[in-house]
Amino acid sequence: MRFTRTDTVFALLALATLASWWLGEGAAASGQHLGTVATLAVLALSAVKGALIALDYMELRHAPALWRRAVMGWLVVVLGLIAVVSVGLRG
Q1: What pLDDT score was predicted for residue 25?
Q2: What was the pLDDT predicted at 9?
Q3: Are 42 and 75 in contact (CB under 8 A)?
Q4: Which of 17, 37, 48, 54 is the most buried (most CB within 10 A)?
Q5: Helix runs in the chain, H state only
């Protein structure tokens, strides 16, 4: 059996989801909030997942550069705002 790019992307998305869940469950099990490092790790995993979905499943990898930049820029702005607010509330 030969794995395609879609299979690889799906496996990466599943692993990133499991890693995010593990980080969140660890905090929930201890009755605490995620620490700053864990929060930023979850956001980084979200960025990777968003990029993989946009580029491979939405097929923006072969779309005009303007569309790729718009979607990836939106992803960076949204996750950046979440990071600033999340880390800012702790500080």
Answers
A1: 82
A2: 96
A3: no
A4: 54
A5: 5-29, 36-52, 65-90
Query: Rounded to an integer, what distance in angstroms lies between the CA atom of residue 66 and that of residue 72?
Result: 10
pLDDT per residue as tens digits for the range 25-60: 877 677 677 778 888 899 999 999 999 999 999 999
Residue 91: pLDDT band with limits 50, 70, 90 = low
Residue ranges of domains in the chain: 5-90
Separation of alpha carbons 9 and 79, rounded Å: 21
**Contact criterion met (CB below 8 Å) for 38 and 27:** yes
Under 8 Å between Cβ of 45 and 20: yes
Give the Cα separation of 61 and 49 in Å (integer): 14
DSSP designation for 71: H
